[in-house]
Amino acid sequence: MIYSLIPSLKSCLRNQLTSSIDKQTIDYLEEWYEDQRLMTRSEFVLSQDGAPLNSTYINDTVHDYGELAKVPTVTAHALRHSHASLLISHPLVIRDRLGHKDVRTTLEIYGHLYPKSDIEASKRLEGLVTVLSE
């Protein structure tokens, strides 16, 4: 987990969402963090000047890269939707990654992206998992 890079953040992130990420991304973030520590004393990994990023900056940056890629109307939320679309065949994984309390929420929001049979299979799986977790 990326917060393991920053020991003092472990306790405050205990209740936050966590996701697995690939080694290449971890290596990049570790390098970024080390470079950043030379410039600032901040513990934020994703900030150039040590301050948290605001949502306007994030959306503007995502939009700019979308224009470079010739993709219309890209927002940070659209990236979340794309991420969900790629994972929808694994509803329990996506439920956890997106922080949904219930897999039904995930399927209601993103289920239209796949055929109805896949959604029905996911609903049956949800019932099985509910029984096993009780």
Automatic annotation (TrEMBL):
InterPro entries the record matches: DNA_brk_join_enz (IPR011010), Integrase-like_cat_sf (IPR013762), Integrase_catalytic (IPR002104)
The keyword Lyase is annotated on this UniProt entry: no
Domain Tyr recombinase: 1-123
Annotated GO MF terms: DNA binding
Keywords: DNA recombination
One GO-annotated biological process of the protein: DNA recombination
Residues of the signal peptide: none
Transmembrane as UniProt keyword: no
Protein name in the entry: Tyrosine-type recombinase/integrase
Lineage: Bacteria, Bacillati, Bacillota, Bacilli, Lactobacillales
